[in-house]
Amino acid sequence: MEPFKKITAVGVPLLRINVDTDCIIPSREMKKVSKVGLGEGLFAGWRYKDTSGREPDPDFILNDDRYSDAQILLSGVNFGCGSSREHAVWALVEYGFKAILAPSFGGIFYNNCTRNGLLPIILAEEDIALLAGWVAENPQENRLVIDLVRQIVSGPEVVAFHFDISPQDKDMLLNGFDMIDVTLQRENEITAFEQQDRRIWANLGETQLIS
Q1: Are the C-beta atoms of residues 13 and 138 closer than 8 Å to each other?
Q2: Cβ atoms of residues 160 and 152 within 8 Å
Q3: How far apart are CA 176 and CA 100, in angstroms?
Q4: DSSP string across 114-155
Q5: What average pLDDT score do residues 155-177 get?
Q6: Angstrom distance (rounded) from CA 62 to CA 112
Q7: How many other β-carbons are positioned within 10 Å of the β-carbon of residue 110?
Q8: What mean pLDDT do residues 93-101 have?
Q9: pTM, entire model
């Protein structure tokens, strides 16, 4: 995965509460056996006029040209609630999002984000509203800055907001690690444990195990 250190990008305000994983990507869009192509199904129930086609709904904010290259999503309480489908995160990532700002997240969704290179940031509801209002005035000019090293979200004309993140999640995102990479970092310790925990008295061949 691509390391995340600092980005300056367009933010898009989708200030709805309880945006569940079925809203993020409806089950009808999950017909692929890979992560590729899921971005087209992102928010499909809102982005398109009907479920049978791909005609954009002009009233949905992602179809507004001012937000066409948005990489930061601002949303409401309990974002990513509902089922544990990892496809929701895959769709957001393939669409181009690198960070999600919300007052709270579904627990499994939050963990899926950090394991797939998407930074979930928890900020107070009023702080997100302030950032969203500032962004909406001129999305292309009023870009947000996210500095993961310093754990700060800011903009040229708005106060900087600090956010918390666990050391492990921060390390994964800064280095672009997935869970396999994290495991391989402990390879020597795992090997040492396996050597220590060997059961040399066990025989899994033709000879019966010693009872």
Answers
A1: no
A2: yes
A3: 17
A4: HTTT-EEEE--HHHHHHHHHHHHH-TTTS-EEEETTTTEEEE
A5: 91
A6: 23
A7: 20
A8: 98
A9: 0.86
Q: At what angle do helices 167-175 and 107-114 cross, to 10 degrees?
A: 40
* Residue 182 lies inside a defined structural domain of this protein: no
Q: Per the structure, how many domains does the chain have?
A: 1
Task: Report the largest interatomic distance among the alpha carbons of the chain, rounded to a whole angstrom.
Answer: 76
Mean local confidence (pLDDT), 91-101:
98
Does residue 98 belong to any structural domain of this protein? yes
Distance CA 113, CA 68 (A): 22
Classify 190 as helix, strand or coil: helix
The encoded tokens of residue 18 equal 């309880």
Range of the domain at 117: 6-177
Task: Give residue 20's pLDDT.
Answer: 98
What pLDDT does residue 135 have? 96
